[in-house]
Amino acid sequence: MHRKAENFSSWYSEVLLKAELIDYYDISGCYILRPWAFSMWEVVQQDLDKRIKSMGVKNCYFPLFVSEGALNAEKEHVEGFTPEVAWVTRSGSSNLTSPIAIRPTSETVIYPYMSKWIRSHRDLPLKINQWCNVIRWEFKHPTPFLRTREFLWQEGHTAHEKEEAARAEVLEVLDMYADVYKDLLAVPVIKGEKTRREKFAGADYTMSTEAFIPATGRGIQAATSHGLGQNFAKIFKIEFENESSQKCQVWQNCWGFTTRSLGIMIMLHGDDQGLVIPPRVAPVQVVLIPIMQEDCNAEQMKSDLVRMEEELKSRSVRTVIDDSSSRTPGWKYNHWEMKGVPLRLEYGPKDMQAGSVRLVRRDNRAKFDVSVEQLGEQVEKILQDIQQSLYESALRVQEEQTRKVTGLEEFMEAIGKGMMAVAPSCNREACEEAVEQETDAMLGSLKALCIPSQQDEVAEGTRCFACDQPATCHILWGKSY
C-alpha cells in the first residue's frame, strides 16, 4: 500500500477500496457507497437530523426534476450552475418537447411552491429540509466523496418575516455544522464568510466552514449556510401580508451538508495502515478477537466474549466478534486496522487465566490490559479519549499550518510550504482575481477560502498584502480542492 506522505492520491484510492468504503461505477464520477461508508453517513444523518428538527425545521421531499423555465428564472443562480447541469432530453425513442434538468440544487424547485404556501405573516417562518441526492456534472478531476457527479446531502430552505431572524439563522446553522464536524468527525473547521467572488450564486452572502488537509496542504469547503436576502422572493413572488395588511417579501436562507464530510474525515485522520475512524461515527467501535490455541477451551473463550459483548452493547457500544476460523489473529488485526475500528479487544488463554483482556487503540496503537470486571467502564473512557485526541491533534496541526502574513513575499512562502495564510486584504474582487492569476503558474488552485469570523481587528494604516490599498479585513487563503 502507498504511503500517505509520499503519494497521497494513490493512498486515498487504495484506502477507499481496501477498507470497503466504495466501489467504482461504470459512469465516470459516480461511485457506490458500500455499507461501511453508508453506515457512517447514517450516523451523521441521524445526529444532524435531530439538530435540524430542534430548530423547528420539518423534513419534506421535492422531485428530482426541474423544468427549464424554473431553472432559468434566476439569472445569476443558473449561471453559477450551468456547466454542471445534467439534462433529460429523451423519453424512450421520443425527444421531449422541453428538456428537463436534474436538480443540481433545489432553490428553483422549492421556491415556486413557497410562493403558494405563504400568504400571511402567520405562515412564517417556513422552515423545511430534505435529505436527497443532487447531480452536478463535474468535469474537474472526479474524486470519491470530494468531487462526484452525484452526492447525498441535506438542504434546508427557510423563509422569514424579518431580515434579523434570517441572519441569526444563518449563523445558527453555521455553528451547528461546525459542531457536527467537531463532535462526530473530530474535524476542526474555521468559520467565516465567503468573499463576493466565492459566494453562492444568487445569494447576498455565504457563510462557510473550512477544513484543512495537512497531507496535501489544501483547504476544503466543509459546509455552507447562505443568506439569500430577498433575491429569490422577488423572482418567485414569495410575498406575505404583514400585521398592517401590507404586502412584503420574505427573507430567505438555504444551507447544506454533504457526504463530502466523510472524505474530509478520511483524508484527515487516515494513516499508512488505513482508516482511522473517530469512535462516535464508527460503524464498529470495538472488535473482539479470540486468540485460539490448541490447548485452550474454545467454547469457554467464545462464551466469555459473548458476555463481554453483551456488557458493551448494554452501554451502547457498537461491537463485532470476529471468531472466524479461516483467518489468523494477525490477519484480523490488519483487516480491522485497515477499516479503522477505534479499539481492538484481544482475548487469549493467558487472558482467560488472568481474568483480563488486551485493548489496543487504533489511533496511537497504545495497549492496555484491563480486567473483565472493569471492561465496560474502561472501554467507554478509552473511546472518549480517542475521540478527543483525534480532534485535538488535528486542531494543533491546523493551527501550526496557518500563518499570519503581511506581505506578498511571506504569503507566497507560506502557501508554497503547504500552509494556509491569513493576510490583510482590501477585499476587492479585482484584487482577489489578480492574486489567483498571478500565482497560478507557481502555486495553482489558490483561493480565498473565507473571511474568518474570528480575526484580529485591522489596525489603522494596514495595507492589503497584494495591492497596497487600505485593508478592510483579514482573508484566509490556501490551495483548495
Automatic annotation (TrEMBL):
One of its GO terms (molecular function) is proline-tRNA ligase activity. It is an enzyme of class 6 (ligase). Residues 38-278 form the Aminoacyl-transfer RNA synthetases class-II family profile domain. Keywords: Aminoacyl-tRNA synthetase, ATP-binding, Ligase, Nucleotide-binding, Protein biosynthesis. InterPro entries: aa-tRNA-synt_IIb, aa-tRNA-synth_II, aa-tRNA-synth_II/BPL/LPL, Anticodon-bd, Anticodon-bd_dom_sf, Pro-tRNA-ligase_IIa, Pro-tRNA-ligase_IIa_arc-type, Pro-tRNA_ligase_II_C. PANTHER family: BIFUNCTIONAL GLUTAMATE_PROLINE--TRNA LIGASE (PTHR43382:SF2), PROLYL-TRNA SYNTHETASE (PTHR43382). NCBIfam families: proS_fam_I. This is proline--tRNA ligase.
